[in-house]
Amino acid sequence: MLCHAPTALAAPGPRGEQWWFQAWEIQNKVWPISRGRGVTVALIDSGVQADITDLQGVVLPGIAYSETGTQARGDGRVDSDSELGGHGTAMATLIAGQGRGSRMMGVAPESRILPIQASSQYNYPEAIRYAVDHGAKVINFSEGVGYRCTDSIQDAVSYAISNDVVIVAASGNDPREPDTAPGDCAGVLSVGALSHDLKIWEKSAPGRNVMVAGPGVSVGATMKDGRFRPNLNGTSQAAALSSGVIALMRSHYSAMSGREVVQRLVATAKDVGPKGWDKWTGNGAMIPYLALTAEVPHNARNPAYEKLDTLQGMAPDVPKTESPAQHTRAVANEKVQGGGSSTGLLLGIAGSVVGLAVIAFAARRIMGRTR
Question: Which residues are bridge partners to 229 per DSSP?
Fold first, then answer.
């Protein structure tokens, strides 16, 4: 496939299974505007296997933390996930895959990945600060800790946002386990999962902080062994693709604040699911082309940041470089009952995708096609 970019040069295109490329008109309408150049996306996950062909030249040196603390033990460029086959690597290919090797293409192939290996409430705060201090403009959490937002995580989130960094998190893969950190922290863009026909994925966790929804059903990715694995389901993929879209926006609108970028993304979403805001899809399905081009009123609502503004309003004298969360947040470490951790990539194979051309055509019409 050809990328319809201004250079008119042949470039790698997505695999046929990557239905969201046609649904979002990435090659025809989005890439001529932005491919993510100049934006670093921090991936707080299991690490990233930097030596696979699809990610060569994409992964920056990062950091790896111990399981229960903040002691560094590597640069994050090795994926430690042995259970799922490379969760962090899969998310990185969704964002910045180069279309080589397994031919997996990311939605923002000119962005760069900062890998941060961290997996618990003990090292998330330090991981967020590391990402901010090492140049990330977007932080992706395709996982959750199974607890509601703690003071320490909220404090780090507020630090990131005060330094103009957008944080994206998966809502979770267990409907019995809503509102888990970091997705329920004030200021975080929590993302639910949709199928190609805009149906809510049955295991997408509801949440009071869900703001938008993205592709999360039959969304394959390349694992740490370099092989493409099809038909993966989860809010992990929805969050990673959302982070890729935000990278496109931050590249195109390089002078625009993260707050305004999130405002645009939310304001241009297509309402799906129950009418109006709902706890599974938030304000609707993301439409990248509209997020990049539509006229958005300056006073458009920005619910993701309104909650943070409430916290900041309670502590107006706290300097911008310091987080006000420690002065305002009351309770933490409350275990959410029912189910395990809401880590992103649920590797339940949904069966082979039948009739990809039909799926892509339907998705293209209803999930972001503009005329």
Answer: 221
